[in-house]
Amino acid sequence: MASHEFLLPYPDLSVERAGNTGVDGVWHFDSGVPGRNVMISALVHGNELCGAWAIKDALALGLRPRRGTLTLVFANLGAFDTFDPAQHDKSRFLDQDMNRVWSADKLADPNTRERQRAVALRPFVEKADWLLDLHSMHEPCAPLLLTGMQPRNLELAREMGAPRHVIVDAGHKDGVRMRDFGRFGELEENGTRSLLIECGFHGALESRDVARDQVARFVKASGIVDDGDFPADWFMPLPAEQLAIQVTDAVVARSMDFTFSQDWQGLEELEKAGTVIGWSDGEPVVTPYDNCTLVMPSLRQLLPGVTVVRLARRVA
Ligand SMILES: [Zn+2]
C-alpha cells in the first residue's frame, strides 16, 4: 500500500511571493522577441506544494524565455499560508475551490476570496496562449495529465511523451476550471494549449520531480526556450508508452453494501469485458468492455450515491 505520509516539505516563498508584476505571486518575463505567451501556475489549491516547488526551482534556475513571454503564478497564496501538514486538506482553499470559478458570471461577482484572487489573475490567464496548471492528489496515484476534450491538447501530451497516463476528461459540472477558461475551452483549434497535471499524492517527494519534468517538457515544446535551457536532471525517464484514456462511466454505490473484488490501486487495465470488479447490493459489478481501466477506486467516502470508481477506455 502506498504511503499517505506527508514527506514533501513546505516551500519558503517569502521572496518569491512578491512577484515582479505588481500582483502578488505573479512573475512575468518578456523576451522582446515574437513567440508564444506561456503560463505555468501552481497552488490553485493551497495544499498542492509540488507545483510551488517547481516554480520556485524555475526562478532559482533563472529561467527566461528566448522568444515570447513566460508567466509564473503562485495562485492561492492565501490558502497556502494556512497550510498544516497534519490537516493539509484544510488549506485546499479559503472560501471556495479556486478551480471552479473560471466563468464570466462568477468573476463578475467576486464574493469569495478565491474569486477576488481569480479576478486579479484573469489578465494573465487571458493573455496566455499555452497554460500548464500544476496539481497533486488526495490519494497515492501515478501522475495523470488531463487534456480536456480538445484534440490539440492530447496531441501536445503525446508530443511531451510523459507521463504514462493521459486522461481525456470533460471537466466538472460544478464550475469551470482555469484550464477551460475562455479560449482554452473552445473545441476548435485556436492556437491555445492547456493541460492540467496531477503530479501524484500531495505529500509525495516524487511529486516535485514530476512537476519539474512537466514544466520542462511543456516549456520546451512551446518553443520559448532552447534545448539545454533546462538541466538534464529536470527530465524524468520517458515511460515505455503513453496510455490515453477517456472516462466513460462512473460506478455509483446504491447503498453501504459495496465491496471491491480486490484491493484496486487505480489504473489497472482489465483485459476482458465482464471482469468482476466488485459487488453492489450482492450483485456483481463488471467491466463493460475489453481493456477497461479503473480510475481512482476508493471506498473512503462510501455513501449511497457516491462514485466509488470511474471506468475509462483507451483513446485511439
Ligand atoms: Zn488540485
Automatic annotation (TrEMBL):
Alphabetical keyword list: Hydrolase, Metal-binding, Zinc
Superkingdom of this protein's organism: Bacteria
Gene3D superfamilies in UniProt: Zn peptidases
GO cellular component entries: cytosol
Succinylglutamate desuccinylase/Aspartoacylase catalytic domain mapped to chain residues: 34-183
Record carries keyword Metal-binding: yes
Name of the protein described by the UniProt record: Putative deacylase
Native source species: Pigmentiphaga litoralis
